[in-house]
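thread from #wetlab-drylab

HS: before we spend reagent money on co-crystallization trials with zinc ion, can we at least see a predicted complex? here's what I'd submit
DV: go for it
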Amino acid sequence: MFRDREELLIWIAEGFADPRASVICTDCSKIFKTMEEIYIPEDLRGIYCEKCYQLERIDEITKLKQSIEELKNTPAFGKDCYLYVIYAGDGIHKIGISHDPISRMNQIQIGNHRKLRLTLSIVFGSREAARTVEKQLHDALSEYRASGEWFNISPQILGAIIFECLEE
Ligand SMILES: [Zn+2]
């Protein structure tokens, strides 16, 4: 590894000057004839031809996206939000999102003569992410809608539809 770009450039120049050596692409081993053919990434981890440099960059962007996704999935990121299913028995389910599904259920329990149960809660890194899946799910369940966020559907069919939505 090189301490700085200047050190790397000197090393490359020496490579060009030395008749026993050849300056090659770190990935594909293409032999460079001039400095203009060489692409150097910020972290100086190698020297690349244009083609390999572009591929490396795509790789970098993919890795960056992945790490953002991983970060979003950690509980500490932003305000967690849950997609929840509350079951009231007899196929009656409420599907919604909340930062605190248990408190939400306790609120709904007040004035509800049925004993409610929280049967599913799935954590999302943001309210927006939970909202997106909730919307998909509500659309997929439209034929089972009783009113608002309440649906009349067997738990088995509901489970299957939820996992279908999550896989998308
Ligand atoms: Zn190359």
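DV: The chain is about 45% helix and 15% strand.
HS: ok that's useful, forwarding to the group
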